[in-house]
Amino acid sequence: MTDARPISILGLSTLRALSTETEIELDPRRFRENFYVEWKDPRPFFEDELVGRELQIGDTSFVQVVKKNGRCIIITLDPETAVSSPNIFRQVSQHHEGCIGVYGAVLREGIIRVNDPIYAV
Fold first, then answer.
1. What's the CATH code of the domain at 13?
2. Which of 4, 7, 87, 114 has the fewest CB atoms within 10 Å around its CB?
3. Against a cut of 0.70, is the pTM above it?
4. Exposed, middle or buried, 18 (CB in 10 Å: 0-12/13-18/19+)?
5. Number of domains comprising the chain
6. Quick one: pLDDT at residue 3?
């Protein structure tokens, strides 16, 4: 049985790549993720390759990566100023199938701490 709501995961290399593509220093809060991850594999959009895979987070938590995270225009809003940058949504829509990050379903709950390792199992 899975949790009723998905969790969201975004690789920090993906965020940096999108910042470069849009020429805007993107605050991670703009994307409202549950987990921001520095993957061992530094390629941007690495998390897209995890769709269909199971992840262990920390010692006891398991998550099934179920799909890419489709985005809405809220990502255009700066979390500090609420100023809109439509170029961000345009870039994601036109070059990344409208998706940044992935959704996961919780398979086994547990306590997760900052800097806990994440393993593909």
1. 2.40.33.20
2. 114
3. yes
4. buried
5. 1
6. 47
- CA distance linking residue 31 with residue 78, whole number of Å: 10
CB 101 within 8 A of CB 69: yes
Would you say 69 and 32 are in contact if contact means Cβ atoms under 8 Å apart? Answer: no
Name the residue range of residue 113's domain. 7-120
Over residues 4-49, the pLDDT tens digits come to: 568 999 999 999 999 999 999 999 999 999 999 999 999 999 999 9
Q: Is residue 1 part of a domain?
A: no
Q: Is residue 33 assigned to a domain? A: yes
Cα angle vertex 79, ends 73, 82, to 5°? 70
CA dihedral for 69, 11, 46, 88, sign (positive or negative): positive
Q: Are 107 and 54 in contact (CB under 8 A)?
A: yes
